[in-house]
Structures are given as C-alpha cells and as structure tokens.
Amino acid sequence: MKEASSSTASDPRQPSTARPYKQAYKLCSWLAIIFCAQSLVNMKNMENDLKQISMAMIVALNLIRSGSRDGNGSVVHH
C-alpha cells in the first residue's frame, strides 16, 4: 500500500502535480497581434472594423500579460 501512495503523489495526471501549458497561449497571442496589425492595414469600413480590431487587440494583449504570470499572480522571470 505504501508504494501506491508514493506513485500517485508523483503522478503527473493528478491535478495537484499538473501544471498548465501556457506557451501555446503566448504564441497564439502574438499571432493575434500580427493579424490585428494586418487588419488595420486592410480596413475598409473604418467604424466597424476599428471596433473589432481594438477588441481583438485587447484580448491578445491580456493573454500575453496573463501568460507571463504564474498561478499566484506574480510575474514569472524567464
């Protein structure tokens, strides 16, 4: 029984030992910013397009900002 408890303590499938993978969010956020810049260049209807682009930019910047923080809210230094 002692072996079973020690193997579950280091099992990465357990929620207590698993860490979220954030690198994909960071990559997607940077891609979103690039696409927003491209959309700014190709705008046809200034009012509607600018609203959509600004919202997409805000979401992308928030994802980048939250990707540089750990689960406790402190900034992670790489």
Automatic annotation (TrEMBL):
Name its species: Asparagus officinalis (Garden asparagus)
What protein is this chain from? Uncharacterized protein
Q: Read off the InterPro entries from this record.
A: ASTER (IPR005351)
Q: Which GO terms describe its molecular function?
A: protein folding chaperone
- List keywords of the entry alphabetically: Membrane, Transmembrane, Transmembrane helix
Subcellular localization: Membrane
For the biological process aspect of GO, one term held by this record is: protein insertion into ER membrane
Keyword match Transmembrane helix? yes
Family membership, please give it: Belongs to the Asterix family.
Q: What GO cellular component entries does it have?
A: endoplasmic reticulum membrane
